[in-house]
Design goal:
Low-confidence stretches: none
CATH topology of the domain at 2-158 and 197-220 and 266-274: Rossmann fold
CATH superfamily of the domain at 2-158 and 197-220 and 266-274: NAD(P)-binding Rossmann-like Domain
Structural class: alpha/beta
CATH class of the domain at 2-158 and 197-220 and 266-274: Alpha Beta
Shape: globular
Largest sheet: 7 strands, parallel
CATH architecture of the domain at 2-158 and 197-220 and 266-274: 3-Layer(aba) Sandwich
Strand order of the largest sheet: 3-2-1-4-5-6-11
Number of helices: 10
Number of strands: 13
Helix content: 40-55%
Strand content: 15-25%
Mean pLDDT: 97
Radius of gyration: 18 Å
Length: 295
Amino acid sequence: MTTLVTGANGLVGSRLVARLAAAGERVIAVGRGPRRFSEAAEYVDQDFLSQKLGETIAGLRPSAVLHAAAMTDVDACEADPVGAWLLNAHLVESAALACREIGARLVALGTDYVFDGEQGPYSEEDLPNPRGVYARSKRAGEEAALLLARDVALCRVAVVYSGRKGSKRTFAISAAENLAAGKQVKAFSDQIVSPTLADNAAEMVLGVHRSGEQGIFHCAGGSIVSRVEFCRALARKLGADEDLVSPVRTSEVKLPAPRPLRCALKTDKVKRLLGESVPLALDAQLDRFLAERRA
């Protein structure tokens, strides 16, 4: 049994590779540029914009594809709709068609941003209403996965962060560094989210994959908080002054791409499948996040 992971250098993709390798499974990691993980796995360097992922999948013939590759910078997507479409929609289409052809299972990663943020938190049954290029291209990718692959699960994640060395810089890392240095951290008070530690997201995605279940699953963290509440909880963990966290409203900041405000995800479905404690609550997430930073 061989599992192919795309986006293997990314926050969730790298943890999928690590967990598969730790379980002794054969994993083929596909990413762009030099490998940025240490686990023993076959690695394929692929430029997803110029090389055909479908041909790679067809040639390697894995039993499953965990598709984590995406263009996730929402403001960059707004500036480059063609690139966003190619990476977030067309790439999923290519993976889904290749999986259909060779009879492989597809597990694709989605995002909380497919919802407009007007009435969250959202369950898997709620209808998406994406706003902005990133959200619309990701929603198109969801449809491609669900319509084209025969054996498919879609796992939506949200506000992913990691403390592991070499991982992509995120809001959580910047906040931790500033708080530890006694510097002010500005955080949105009106954006309510489901922060998700990357390794916990990978744990849930693999759990869904191994279950054989099909359909949509929200593989997000188990706590629903504002970004201000997230930063204040982080400050408490660091022994920093919570007053360093300065609340701002999204309307006060001129951002190129729209941000859904109440876009938290309900995780009841994945809890029923994998266990109540699997989507980590914020307190446990932050403990693991800081342990990753110390490692």
